[in-house]
Amino acid sequence: MKKTNPAIIWFRQDLRINDNQALNAAIKSGMPILPVYVLDDENAGEWQLGMASRCWLIQSLSSLNKSLGGQLRFFKGPADQIIPQLANEVNASGVYWGRCYEPWRIHRDTCIKTTLHKDNIRAKSFNNALLFEPNTILKSDGTPYKVFTPFFRKGCLQTIQQTDLTVKSETLREFDQSRVGGGINALNFSPDSNLKAAVQNKWQPGELGALNRFNRFLENGIQGYKEGRNFPGTDHVSGLSPHLHFGEISIRQVWHTIKNETEADPEDIEHFLSELCWREFSYNLLYHRPEMPRNNLQEKFDKFPWRDNRKDLNKWRLGETGYPIVDAGMRELRQTGYMHNRVRMIVGSFLVKNMLLHWHNGEDWFWDRLFDADLASNSASWQWVAGCGADSMPYFRIFNPITQGRKFDPEGIYIRRHIPELAKIPTEHIHMPWEAETKTNYPTPILDLASTRKRALKALEATRNHPDSS
């Protein structure tokens, strides 16, 4: 006799089969599996997926659907209505999902759980996205960490040493045959053609693509990572951030493999693990300070005299500031949906300190243009570079883009890759092309570094008398 009462597995930011605790639990229930995905722009509000994320997501979901034998069902609309209605329609035995930690999702998912329980439907959620829950890594006095280094040393490392990170993957046996939901076209995506091409040319969204990229990093990138990761012209970054964001690979798998199954230099290994823990730290901050995406964590910056200049902001977005390392980064972002992490810090410093434009401008542009746009990491990192976060780069530390370019892209490899009009500029002038005799159509600098640095430091004085100033 055929089983009824399917187990719904609600995929979210865990678009994979392996090491998926929610999927494992659904399979263990013994009921046929009904896999679903819901695009919920209504509850997301201002944090609905940006353009780049949608381009990535549509291909990642296609990959997941293929892994599920074409059985994934798609819905678009408010999940707090769709999931309970669907569960009742198919008489589901339970609904299983991986937890997300954005404030709007926590609120929505709590409501969904309450509704399902009232309807006598099992609702179980699991940690599929992080090494550990954000509310479990606390200081000895029970308060959350505000500084990254002790969070990493005393929080992450000690907790992980006591935790088994391995999770067995169950075998899919039987799918529910209910005729519910629609195909992937139900999501009604209209991907940007340039970003769609960037995904297809450089990336391989999905679980297989994530594993392939991780294996390439193990073979070619982890050795020399600590120093090599700072040089955007070389291949010493993992490129895993979009795969981790969409949950196409388990962070537990990444951590365990790097820590226990690689023979790289211990300093390279530890530095990479610290980068994984910065992601955890960002989620920890967001969980305890849900206002972080829009409010300064250091309230003294509420008085900061930001400029409002749309013309300058547009030049920054387009990569037309006249400073090659800045423009190369912004063009890489527009062309590829990605930006090297060292360059992210440089372009961020240039925007908020030299240009004196609010960090929200950078946060919003990255949110729309990055394949790995992640609310926790994006907002924590922009607050870091602006100097207003919990554990931030001091505002008075201002990256000089010429010095940074000479140090981390000395031959101009990265710059020439993304700014073709500078391809023939001699190396000695690649970071200051206005001094070269070679004529180009590359723009002249839109600002003077020395005077804008002084302006930024003067603006900092506006925060001095605030009660939370130290």
Keywords:
470 residues; 5 strands; mainly alpha; globular
- Order the strands across the largest sheet as they lie in space: 3-2-1-4-5
- Total DSSP helices: 20
Strand content: 5-15%
Distance between the termini: 71 Å
Which structural class is indicated by helix and strand composition? mainly alpha
User: What's the helical proportion of residues?
Assistant: 40-55%
Mean pLDDT across residues: 93
Describe the SSE topology.
Blueprint: E1 7-11, H1 21-28, E2 33-39, H2 41-44, H3 51-67, E3 73-76, H4 79-89, E4 94-98, H5 103-118, E5 122-126, H6 148-161, H7 193-202, H8 207-220, H9 225-228, H10 241-245, H11 251-260, H12 266-288, H13 310-318, H14 324-336, H15 341-354, H16 359-369, H17 375-386, H18 401-408, H19 413-418, H20 449-460
Parallel strand pairs: 1-2, 1-4, 2-3, 4-5
Helix pairs in contact: 4-5, 6-12, 11-12, 12-17, 14-15, 16-17
What does this structure look like?
By secondary structure, the chain is mainly alpha-helical. The chain contains 20 helices and five strands.
Short précis:
Helices cover 47% and strands 6% of the residues. The protein has 470 residues and is mainly alpha-helical. Strands 3-2-1-4-5 form a five-stranded parallel beta sheet, with helices on both faces.
